[in-house]
Design a protein that fits this description.
The complex is a heterotrimer of chains A (585), B (311) and C (318). Chain A is 32% helix and 18% strand. Chain A has 585 residues and is an alpha+beta fold. In chain A, the strands form five sheets. In chain A, strands 11, 12, 13, 14, 15, 16 and 17 form a seven-stranded mixed sheet that branches. Chain A starts with a helix and ends with a strand. Chain B is an all-alpha fold and 311 residues long. Chain B has one domain: MetI-like fold (Orthogonal Bundle). In chain B, 72% of the residues lie in helices and 0% in strands. Chain B is built from 13 helices and no strands. In chain B, α10 runs antiparallel to α11 and α12 packs antiparallel against α13. The longest helix of chain B is centred in the C-terminal third of the chain and has 37 residues. Chain C has 318 residues and is an all-alpha fold. Chain C has a domain of 189 residues: MetI-like (MetI-like fold, Orthogonal Bundle). In chain C, 70% of the residues lie in helices and 0% in strands. Chain C is built from twelve helices and no strands. Classes of the chains: A alpha+beta (585), B mainly alpha (311), C mainly alpha (318). At the A-C interface, α1, α9 and α17 of A face α2, α4, α5, α6 and α11 of C.
Amino acid sequence: MNIRSRGFLLFAGLMSIMLVAAAACSSGTSSGDKTKTAAAGGGKTPAAGATTSTGGEQAPAAQQKITIQSAEPQFYDPHRSSFEQDIGIERLLFRGLYNLTDDGKGGVKVEPGLAAAEPKIAGNVYTVTLKSGLKWSDGKPLTAQHFVDGAKRGCDPGIAADYGYIWGPGYLDLVGCEALQANKDAAQKEALLAKLGARAVDDKTVEFTLTKPNPRFTTLMAIWVTFPARLDVIAAKGDQWTLPGNIVSNGPFILKDMTPKDHATLIPNPNWTGKKPALQQITVKFIDDLSAAFRSYQSHELDMTRISATDIAVAKADSALAKEVLVNPTGRISSVEMNTQAPSKVLGDLNVRIALARAVDREALNEAVFDGTSTPATYWVVKGIKGHQGNEAFDSIIGFNADAARKALADAGYPGGAGFPELGIVVNTPERKAVAEFLQQSYKSVLGINIRIDQVDSPTRSARFQKEDFELFIGGWQIDYPDIENTLFGLFETDGGNNHYNCSNPDVDAALKIALAATSEDARIKAYQNMETAIIKNVCGVAPLYQDSLPFMVNRKLGGVVPNGSIDSGLPGNYCVECWFVKAS
Amino acid sequence: MATQDAAVAPLFADHSDGIVRGHRGLWSDAWRRMLQNKLAMLGLGALATILVMSLVATQMNVVERHAPHDITTAKQLGPTGDHFFGTDQLGRDTWARTLEGVRISLQIGLGTQLVVLSLGLFFGVLAAFGGKLTDNLVMRFTDIMFSFPDLLFIILLREILNGQGIKFLTGTMVMILAIGMIAWTTIARLVRGQMLSLGERDFVTAARALGATRWRIVTTHMLPNTLGPVIVAVTFGIPTAIFAEAALSFLGLGIPAPAASLGTLVADGNRFVQVNVWNVVFPAGAIAVLMLSFTFIGDGLRDALDPRTRG
Amino acid sequence: MLGYTLRRVLWIIPVLWVIATLTFFLMQAVPGGPFTSEKQRPPALEEALQAKYGLNEPLWQQYATYMGNIARGDLGISFDGDRPVSGIIRHSGFISAQIAILSFVVAVTFGISLGTISALNHNKPLDYAGVLFATVGASVPNFVLAAFLSIIFGVELGWLKLLGWGGPPEISDIFNPSAYHPSKMVLPVVALTVLPAAYIARVTRASVLEVLSQDYIRTARAKGLSEFWVVMRHTIRNALIPVLTVIGPIAAILVSGSFIIESTFGIPGLGRESITAVQRRDYGLIMGTTLFYALIVAIANLIVDVLYAVVDPRIRYR
């Protein structure tokens, strides 16, 4: 039997060789060297700092080809899309009347896109003049009627546009849209379409009639669901109209080919009349597994990819890779959300909510789970939006303070956590699970209470949220357009459509009422700020934890890729893909 | 149709042409041979050591050293004198978590086999003795279970059972039920095939000719002879269940945090493989050692229960 | 034999029907639907969306419609981009099939050779090397293996590619040499092969050892047949019977695609489609992939049963 034991020794030997080899692979990435990341938003990495000028440093056209990573879009049809990855790529293929661009200060500004200038406003009527010579990728002229058709698709229940509500009440308030969206009688449809408040005055002038004046008209007209539409193409090809070969688009790039779950190839649109893109080809690889994407970036198969926060430490530890990290801030706040009417009843007590909010050390959480890439937050209105109040305004109310947290819990009748029921917290992704584990530990050590982590898959999580079948929830709000109202309206007022926290507070409701009726921009912002303050003071359903950031790797040979501010975070700098270029080496 | 089901049998089959020995002889013989099998003993020893260590860990600080769920700022360490296996993303001690993982994974492995064994024996015997139609139906039922959309089933089961406050149905129990409900088909096929092939054997024919009742034939002649291969299959089923749990953890459907099975530890650690490889190495190593132990024990059992090697 | 085969083929239909029914109601019972999102749609829009895909009809009616369509060979559309399910299965199935066939051939060749070599060198170093591979190979989860192989051969050494599949994307490219990129094929196949190869090696080794101890082998040796012929003519053939039985399920599992391998290497295969279908509650695709898998399993089992009867004539049909 001694040969047998020798065999075992051999096995042990081989195992240790494997371990050593594996350890060697990770050499230099041990934990000690954690460098503090620049705060999201202000983060200037060399890649990010590259100017958008494309003077003399460009590589020849033959080298202007890049391969990037993205999650796979559901649709390539702007009127139907709702996912981040759809919009990220659609902004390369399509353009609307106005563009949201980075203001260089971590914020966002609105600029005319296909519109020649700001709209002319006469009461409720907004008139936009198009730039001259606009064309679709098939060479047909792009006219005002196509924007009218875009509005029709957005409001047509047959299209079931996910973001169609942007045209509807509370948002753009286009005349006739609400009636059309609610219509179930096919016979009525044509008449209702004809009554829609969008009209082509002539080929270059489009007129929108709203039910009331709208101060963020241009911002909303930059959202994908307002993009123009080619009804003739869609009628001819049906649901297949977005397939390569069928699709007709109006942006700087066109879809050349696409293999589901694999890749899409984009090439410049020859009929694009704006600034000519330098890149001759963009291959988008559809990868969900971010660790795999990071490895492919390291093996030079990708020129740009989103990475998970966990891999940032690896990139930072490598002097070459460290220069290629681009932290893209997002318009998303993540928070512990609370169902104030959950069956256990305790969350109805403000003191309990204050205790839960104040027991979390957000700085430590940010270091532990995100390696310092996100921004600790006690505010709800994201950084980069006009009206953002910052942590200073709220730290004293819900910021980390173990003693205050304990006192609040004692005031609620649970000194030291005695008699407090076990609450469940719903999470889906591994990252959110890690956040929940951090909370679990904080609540246990600071408050002496237990919470139970329910890790479920994403549709289950969303369904639970919609059904208000949760006590605690790691969630947040991703803004759809950079305006303060989008972070507040519909979420917190009594009976608000997205108010699944059952937040019902007179101060909140009153502030919103003032905001909606405000006639001046300053008054509107001020009222929304008061609403935010009331929400935080009452922990009315949310205790903000951090503003998310998405780390990307951008190859240093790639120029012109800038962070997106809080526009949309699917691809950094996608609002000016024509600025991207491969540098001459 | 006896085919593929009986097909597993030759691997473990009882090819004795002679008269089957008494109950006690079979098992004591087997045990004696098992003791002589060094590899099997090694596996048994390793398993016992790991099991004892993981069990005393909760009671003795000397063994556990750190609380498995304590989040600290000492994150992503490699092995040190204080943290034998290093620490994870949240600064938790991997040694303590691995010991906890062994405990949970073994619970899942053994618990799953309990479910598998009861369902597998029941349906296997039913198929073998229930007549042609029953047999056909049971076998097609196993076909159905084999292609069953288990992921949906597990998501639903978790949703129905979790958070209902039913004390007995913990996350581990749900996992056991979920894996067990799908894994039993192999045992059912094995039992059925074994029973059918034993039915053709001389000693059974002889017993039948001697007027033994059907019940007696099944209980005294057939079940004991079936049990050998079944026990072997169960030993191999334990690591398979541990693997299945790891795959579910990879999909985010593992047991509820902060408790972590070995599978969860490996799946979580795999996300940090480039940051801190030790997050994967040690839990994966623990799985490998468990796998090896059970494999050696299973091999040993198979040899021990194989009548041809019987002295 | 023919009657038996025919009967088994006919049984596939009710089996598929039961699986389809179970899956249909199961996926409806699972929380969340294809359009569930955290953000609430205005009720009118939600209704319009449900109506567009016929999800507002009573469940039994949806079921009847679906079954009717299936009977006509129409698998419906995926909610993810409105693509036809049959097309998704055809494309992703073709990719997964390539990986499966390659992995299968490698696993079987490697596994059987390794197992035989081990057995013929019983208790010698070669045997231990074989057992070592078989046990270690079977004890590492494949997502760990895939990650380690990627880091070593892709990131550190840069020898192999980590993204996508190197085989032809369409059946029409199958004879086009430029559609093959071996550097993209090695890692997925290796990561997928190790476990089944190890398993086959174990089974083969045990089985060959058993056959070698049989009387007829002793007789053959006594007759003075060369060891080579003893092995080739008598041992392998008889030892393959149990191996065949494990090969069937392995083939079925390989053909259905591996979510883990496919998502780690960014391969557009069936495994990824079927898991993401569940994760996105893509009803049409869940039904399509489940039924396809069930069909493959049924056929694989049937082939194994019939093959088994061919190899071992003692088998009795029931």
